[in-house]
Amino acid sequence: MNTAVLATLAFTGFSVAFFHAALPTHWLPFVLVARARGWRERKTMGVAMIAGLGHVALTSVLGLIVAWLGFALDDHFGELFRWIAGGVLLAVGGYFAVQQLRGAGLRHHHLPGGHHHPSEACGHEKESSHLEHELRESPLIESKTGDWAAISGLLVMLTLSPCEAFLPVYLSGVEFGWTGFFVLSAILAAGTLGGMTIFTWLTLRGLARFDLKKVERFEAGMLATVFLLLGLMMIFIEHGHDHAH
After folding, report:
1. What is the domain extent for residue 152?
2. Residue 24's pLDDT is what?
């Protein structure tokens, strides 16, 4: 196994997971609901961590499916698999690059079942996040809704919204067998839970002086860069095989 390539892949995966967790959908709902309901910091952080674990678990299950299909293709196509996987990653990167160039760099993330109408108020026309507007209309904020209902809503909201951007990373780790899968799953958990914890805590403490909405606008472009590099790495770097699957 080429450990240098696996280490590069792990670093890339951590970057994807951490940046994805930095998006407001992963911490802003917990902060706004906590402020509206007067939750203590410990309770807010606990709810965020449990939701993050559900988020990671579902993403890992989907990653397991991606890895299993990748193992089957690797066994069937052998050396040709590198070109197939690399081509898929380049295609994914190209898609995100086109989205960024079209001015759709902000990939809107909505609350499950959320409803909104594109307008200046929701931020669509200005390419900024409109999550806060959806939350204000959500029963999660309403005081008449019990705390357990609000907590359940937050857990479902994040658990059922897997980190789809991480799934192609699982594909790029297929040649490292189950070792690659478990390493990437651990990286996914570390990046996601670490990012959620940091940004939730900073915002609760009023220390978040940065404007992540500006960064959001380049989400598609950043993902394009990552997947284009992963695709080139798959095709042109000799990985070495681990057929422990």
Report:
1. 3-236
2. 82
Is residue 241 in a domain?
A: no
Q: In Å, how far are 70, 92, 102 from 97, measured between CA atoms?
A: 24, 9, 9
Long-range contacts of 194-197 (CB under 8 A, 24+ apart): 194/18, 194/21, 195/17, 195/18, 195/19, 195/20, 195/21, 195/22, 195/26, 196/21, 196/26, 196/27, 196/48, 196/49, 196/51, 196/52, 197/45, 197/48, 197/49, 197/52
Q: What angle do CA 148, 58, 107 make, to 5 degrees?
A: 90
Q: Give the pLDDT band of residue 141 (cuts 50, 70, 90).
A: low
Residue 93 lies in a domain: yes
Orientation of helix 41-77 relative to helix 147-159, angle to 10°:
20
Query: What pLDDT, in 10s, does the model give residues 179-217?
Result: 999 999 999 999 999 999 999 999 888 765 555 556 667
Residue 49 lies in a domain: yes
The residue behind tokens 């669509």 is 124
Lowest mean pLDDT among 11-25, 66-80, 134-148, 194-208: 134-148
What the block records as the tokens of 167 is 């799934």
Instruction: Tell whether the torsion through CA atoms of 22, 24, 30 and 32 is positive or negative.
Output: positive
Q: Is residue 12 part of a domain?
A: yes
- Total of domains in the chain: 1
